[in-house]
Every structure is written in structure tokens, then in C-alpha cells.
């Protein structure tokens, strides 16, 4: 599965638990909270003022 802008944080953490560290390195410390489970990476990048392309690149390494 390729991680893309429409992938939710919950999907990333469930499918690739090791990627939680990548999310946290981008400042997403709330990856375990219930609302983040349905939030897409695009939405999270917007909320956290992150560059979506950088985030996706790091997650797909």
C-alpha cells in the first residue's frame, strides 16, 4: 500500500506501526487520539502547517 494524502493517520499506524515515529518527528504527537484515527494526512498536514510532500516522502521511504 502506498501512503498518500488520503491515507488516514489510523491506517498508517495500524498498517505500518514503525511509521508512528516518522509522524511524531513531524510534530504529530497526538497520533493515538481518537480524532486523529480518521484524519487524512492531508488534513493533518494542514492543521500542523507541514509540507505534505515532505511528509509523504518520509512516510514512503
Automatic annotation (TrEMBL):
Pfam family, any one: DUF1858
Domain DUF1858 as annotated: residue spans: 3-56
InterPro entries according to UniProt: CHP03980_redox-disulphide, DUF1858, ScdA-like_N_sf
Name the UniProt record assigns to this protein: Hydrid cluster protein-associated redox disulfide domain protein
Organism: Clostridium pasteurianum BC1
Amino acid at each position: 500500500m502506498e501512503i498518500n494524502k488520503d491515507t488516514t493517520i489510523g491506517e498508517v499506524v495500524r498498517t505500518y506501526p514503525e511509521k508512528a515515529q516518522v509522524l511524531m518527528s513531524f510534530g504529530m504527537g497526538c497520533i493515538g487520539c481518537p480524532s486523529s484515527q480518521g484524519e487524512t494526512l492531508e488534513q493533518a498536514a494542514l492543521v500542523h502547517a507541514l509540507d505534505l510532500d515532505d511528509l509523504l516522502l518520509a512516510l514512503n521511504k
